[in-house]
Amino acid sequence: MNVDLKIAQAAKLEPITEIAKHAGIPEQFLSSYGNDKAKVDIKLMETLADKKDGKLILVTAINPTKAGEGKSTTTIGLADGLKKRNKNVIACLREPSLGPVFGLKGGATGGGQAQVVPMESINLHFTGDMHAITTANNLIAAMLDNSIYQGNPLNIDPTKVVWKRCLDMNDRTLRDITIAQKKKSNGVEREDHFVITVASEVMAILCLSKDLKDFETKIGNAVVAYTYDDTPVTVKDIQAAGAATVVMKEAINPNLVQTLEHTPAFIHGGPFANIAHGCNSVIATKMALKLADYVVTEAGFGADLGAEKFLDIKCRLAKLDPSAVVVVATIRALKMHGNIEQDKLDQPNIDAMLIGAKNLQKHIETIQNFKLPFIVAINKFAKDSQEEVDALLNWCKENNYPVSLADGWARGGEGMLDLADEVINTVEHACKYQPIYELKDSIETKIEKICEKVYGSKQVEYTPEVKEKIAFFNKNGWNTLPICMAKTPLSLSDDPNLKGRPEGFTTHISDLSISLGAGFIVVFTGSVLTMPGLPKQPAAVNMGVDDNGDTYGLF
């Protein structure tokens, strides 16, 4: 059995009512799902309006590799470390998607002694949020196609439907399909395409909404199709906003769980960072900031994706002021960025690691571009050689980068005390983050600033179709929206094979789409897939339930 699962199954959890008390949540705002998880009524925020916000700490990382970086483990461990320093702290994480759980990436509940629990429930059905998002999305799709079938009163062009059905699973066969085949009674036949639930606009809207009423407004503004004369058609136009909001009535409330060390944690919303904005919900983050003095949150993948969107989209739209950023790296991952193959990572190689450190350096420079203080967290692995650790510590010191060893996986909060101390010291100094582009900038300028300041790409190439779409977006007044870049997480470039810190490359802009409800423009680079596929050997083949009723094979 995997050690993470064994540790989680052996954990002694406190009743969720006790965790709520630790977090300062009155019981009347709690809806328990068993003894170990609960929904927190968003109405609690009305009672917290006069409370001062706590300090917001973002955890990000280098570009991910198969060696693993441990961003969630670091986030959870840091929260536990701050608690051990007698700080009032809440962790804020994203909800895992079933696609990666059964595919290749795995879950999103941390690892070793730095986990959120109940791990199995969180990684599987949890409180049903993913199912609600999927249902709301597909309800809108069904009502849209029904409107076209029932006489098409809105004059929708079936070839210009942009709202896609979704499924919280990796299923490549659904990328390009034809619906309503054979019989006219099945509807109007047309080509369609599924996306994974975490890439849906409903997910983005949930995570950027202030409350249920705001959700209804935002979902009503979402564009689902265009008429024959290119007029946008919205969810409100097909009269689906109210019903979609009804489906989301419970899902809008944040989920409360705990770490292995009983630190409160909100887990709510889970957009991917490569094809969506990659952050947990604004509701959960703002609630945590009112309840705690320190809030530790994460953003998906590396700083080029999750952190950039956290700072340029989430913080801007929600008026959040982060106090510090933790940039996570591992010796093993840096060696992979230094062109060492995965099967040779156990062999010490300081030269390769220092070559790979250029990737870390670029992500640090990105955080500096946002005018934020940072700490490098070296997430410790058991097979790291002391010589490599010392070399990386020296490299950080030579570059004047604040750095801390993080040993949360093996030692929980105790192994994160040094990082906790660095964070406590850092957030005491006032700062004011600065987005890297202005909303008044043109669409092209915003894209090019991200490409240059975050990716290190001075050349940006647009297809003729993209140029036409930019002109169309300008015509519709969408040019003042922030940008959500869809890019491979594996490289600073749009080529997943370019490791380390590539230079002199061109970023290729392949498509644009509008997420008017969420309030941003999605810009596609290279060939990013919105519906992933399963690997040759999916994690699912090793999963099951034993004779005692215990799960096995889940990470």
Distance between the termini: 9 Å
- Unreliable runs, pLDDT <50, ≥5 residues? none
What fraction, in percent, of the residue positions are helical? Answer: 25-40%
Question: What would you report as the Rg, rounded to the nearest angstrom?
Answer: 23 Å
Strand content: 15-25%
Largest sheet: 12 strands, mixed
The general outline is globular
Number of helices: 19
Strand segment tally: 25
Mean pLDDT: 95
Structure classification? alpha/beta
Summarize the structure.
35% of the residues lie in helices and 19% in strands. The protein has 555 residues and is an alpha/beta fold.
Question: Which short descriptors sum up this protein?
Answer:
555 residues; alpha/beta; 19 helices; 25 strands; globular
Can you describe this structure?
With about 550 residues, the protein is of the alpha/beta class. About 35% of the residues lie in helices and about 20% in strands. The strands form six sheets. Strands 1, 2, 3, 4, 5, 6, 14, 15, 16, 17, 18 and 19 form a twelve-stranded mixed sheet that branches. A four-stranded mixed sheet has the order 20-22-23-21. It has a three-stranded antiparallel sheet with strand order 7-12-13, with helices on one face. A hairpin with a 5-residue loop joins β1 and β2. α12 (about 305-320) packs parallel to α14 (about 350-370) and α13 crosses α14. The model has no long low-confidence stretch (mean pLDDT about 95).
